[in-house]
């Protein structure tokens, strides 16, 4: 008896969530060094990972987290690090705009 492979139907929300996860992974790599305000960014990452672990994807929650990330960036005193974090903030916005590719 052959097993039928069941493919999960991907949605725009799945694509957005995966893109956000990638942004968080890259962000973690950027903040390995110490800098003033790092604790705010780490706290934000912890909250974002908690949100990503939830089954549901509620876009408004992710937009709220992006606003909170902006607050964490503003608390970062190191100019170079703030610039790197801004790049991640921009990437997060693009991730939330992603859509499933139509064939």
Account of the 3D structure:
With 103 residues, the protein is mostly helical. It has one domain (12-97). It is 68% helix and 0% strand. The protein is built from four helices and no strands. Helix 2 (38-53) packs antiparallel against helix 3 (59-74) and helix 3 packs antiparallel against helix 4 (79-97). It starts with 11 loop residues before the first helix and ends in a 6-residue tail after the last helix. The model has no long low-confidence stretch (mean pLDDT 90).
Outline, from the CA principal axes?
elongated
- Low confidence ranges: none
Strand content range: under 5%
Counted beta strands: 0
Tell me, rounded to a whole number, the average pLDDT.
Answer: 90
Treating each run of at least 4 consecutive H or I residues as one helix, how many helices? 4
Largest sheet: none
Structural class comes to mainly alpha
* Secondary-structure element string: HHHH
List its salient traits.
single chain; 103 residues; mainly alpha; 4 helices; 68% helix; 0% strand; elongated
Please summarize what this structure is.
With 103 residues, this protein is mainly alpha-helical.
What's the structural blueprint in terms of helices and strands?
Elements: H1 12-30, H2 38-53, H3 59-74, H4 79-97
